[in-house]
């Protein structure tokens, strides 16, 4: 089930929070920067994994942050300077479905993947999220883009 939420995704009590990242180890803008500040232990694990080439498009990098809770680092961009690619979002959503079952996730907070600094159109990404995550046995808490 997908429910739309407003507000600060980082304050959500979901079992897993999705963090939009690149694959080069930089969390310098947007929501990723907020994650870096709020969860430095996640940033350290992510940066190390990037240096070891273990963060790749289409593959979610999970980091446990406290008992039973996860940050799911979701590559939305290959490089922080690049724009997002819809095929990377689609492949990442497929991996998120796999990981959700593997980790037994029941609530997942999801931002507008690739729609901020990534430049993808929200209606297209929303449709893809609905298609890929709508049938999960988990509550997806979707945070649409904030109005300008």
UniProtKB/TrEMBL annotation:
It catalyses: an N-(ADP-alpha-D-ribosyl)-thymidine in DNA + H2O = a thymidine in DNA + ADP-D-ribose. It comes from the Bacteria. Transmembrane segments: none annotated. Pfam families: Macro (PF01661). GO terms for biological process: peptidyl-glutamate ADP-deribosylation. Gene3D superfamilies: Leucine Aminopeptidase, subunit E, domain 1. Residues 1-148 form the Macro domain. This is O-acetyl-ADP-ribose deacetylase (Regulator of RNase III).
């Amino acid at each position: 089930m997908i429910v739309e939420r407003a507000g600060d995704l980082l304050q959500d009590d979901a079992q897993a929070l999705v963090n939009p990242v690149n694959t080069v180890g930089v969390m310098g803008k947007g929501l990723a920067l907020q994650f870096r500040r709020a969860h430095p232990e996640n940033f350290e694990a992510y940066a190390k994994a990037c240096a070891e080439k273990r963060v790749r498009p289409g593959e979610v990098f999970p980091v446990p942050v406290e008992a039973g809770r996860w940050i799911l680092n979701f590559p939305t961009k290959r490089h922080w300077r690049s724009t997002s690619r819809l095929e990377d979002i689609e492949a990442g959503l497929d991996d998120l479905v796999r990981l959700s079952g593997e980790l037994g996730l029941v609530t997942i907070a999801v931002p507008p993947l690739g729609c901020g600094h990534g430049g993808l159109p929200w209606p297209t990404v929303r449709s893809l999220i609905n298609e890929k995550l709508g049938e999960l046995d988990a509550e997806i808490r979707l945070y649409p883009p904030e109005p300008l």
